[in-house]
Amino acid sequence: MLSERRLEVLRAIVQDYVGTEEPVGSKALTERHRLGVSPATVRNDMAALEDEGYIAQPHTSAGRIPTDKGYRLFVDKLAGVKPMTAPERRAIQNFLDGAVDLDDVVGRTVRLLAQLTRQVAVVQYPSLTRSTVRHVELLSLAPARVMLVLITDTGRVEQRMINCPAPFGETSLADLRARLNSRIAGRPFADVPQLVQDLPDAFEAEDRGTVSTVLSTLLETLVEETEERLMIGGTANLTRFGHDFPLTIRPVLEALEEQVVLLKLLGEAGDSSMTVRIGHENAYEGLNSTSVVSVGYGSGGEAVAKLGVVGPTRMDYPGTMGAVRAVARYVGQILAES
Fold first, then answer.
1. Distance (Å, rounded) from C-alpha 283 to C-alpha 287?
2. 233-281: per-residue pLDDT in tens?
3. Residue 244, exposed/middle/buried by CB under 10 A (0-12, 13-18, 19+)?
4. Among 25, 49, 182, 311, which is least packed, fewest CB within 10 Å?
5. Using CA atoms, how far apart are residues 95 and 201, in angstroms rounded to an integer?
6. Is the distance from CB of 202 to CB of 179 less than 8 angstroms?
7. Which strand ranges, in their side-by-side order, compose the sheet holding 275-278?
8. Sign of CA dihedral 253, 122, 78, 1
9. Cα 271-222-200 angle, rounded to 5 deg
10. Are the C-beta atoms of residues 269 and 296 closer than 8 Å to each other?
């Protein structure tokens, strides 16, 4: 275990390196921070931190920079989550409150996160596998043509056109709509197939074919739309950090184009806790020079999706974690109220 003083020296090195982008020397540390010890003692502490792999000496400069291990200890032990100021919170709320639908919510969230953190923002759409049915609407377009509209508790809306095998009257359509909603409104998607399997039996023989067709389309919609979707923004922010990527930024950009990679980085959507993956903790080699800060968001107690940011390991972790958490909380509130 590191002594309290050496932890303070590590904290000062991380803060200075993140702020100045320059390797940190013992003289600069004693001048900028009240460590209460001589420069010689600070040099000894830095040598010990280097021996234990928390800091490293790039090239031949006298200064040191944090390693992945150093950042990890900083995040786990030394960094509090920086709270957003009242004006920042109001700005977040005002920006997100103007959203008109789920696509707009996700789009605004990506732009907002990228602006707040000056990193690459990634937002996962709410997963239908963790959603519930809010309402099913059936609209008659022609005697044998119906539009099915499925609305989820997260504000997602799916529409399907259905060609019925026979004309279907308004009265029968209203009956089917009422029966469907009484059975599946407020229920998880996974429960729907079992809840509607005997529904055709409640209708006259001449209408059962159409009821079965509507139900088949509904169930196909549930299956088709379970594919996870992401929105990404702020990729241009990476160009500000060119020197933070040892060889080239290209592997990072290539990784960000792989949706499967990003979904794995964000982690399980049902987990609402804050996750920080630093450098080589990211399994994908192209992202070994980056850190990923992510958290779950949702309209209830359980997260329905994740959002987060990707940036260089030389990151303002307290500020980034605070921004990610605050935005996730507001997005969850919007989904709950939508």
1. 8
2. 988 888 777 677 766 678 788 888 887 788 887 876 566 788 899 988 8
3. middle
4. 182
5. 49
6. yes
7. 230-233, 120-124, 305-312, 290-297, 275-278
8. negative
9. 135
10. yes
Q: Which two tokens stand for residue 16?
A: 């200075």
Q: What sign does the CA torsion over 243, 244, 245, 250 have? A: negative
Tokens standing for residue 29: 């540390």
Strand partners, 91: none
Reply yes or no on whether the pLDDT at 31 is more than 70: yes
Closest C-alpha among 323, 320, 294, 322 to residue 307:
294
pTM for the model stands at 0.78
Q: Which amino acid is at 294?
A: S
The answer to whether the CB of 68 falls within 8 A of the CB of 53 is: no
**Residue found under tokens 């020296």:** 9
Residue type (1 letter), 149: V
Strands 275-278, 120-124: pairing kind: unpaired
Sheet holding 157-163, edge to edge: 133-142, 145-152, 157-163
Asked if residues 304 and 321 have their Cβ atoms less than 8 Å apart, the reply is: no
Residue burial 92-109, b: 16+ Cβ < 10 Å; e: rest: beebbeebeebeebbebb
Length of the chain: 338
Rounded CA-CA distance 140/151 in Å is 17
Measured CA to CA, the distance from residue 308 to residue 124 in angstroms comes to: 9
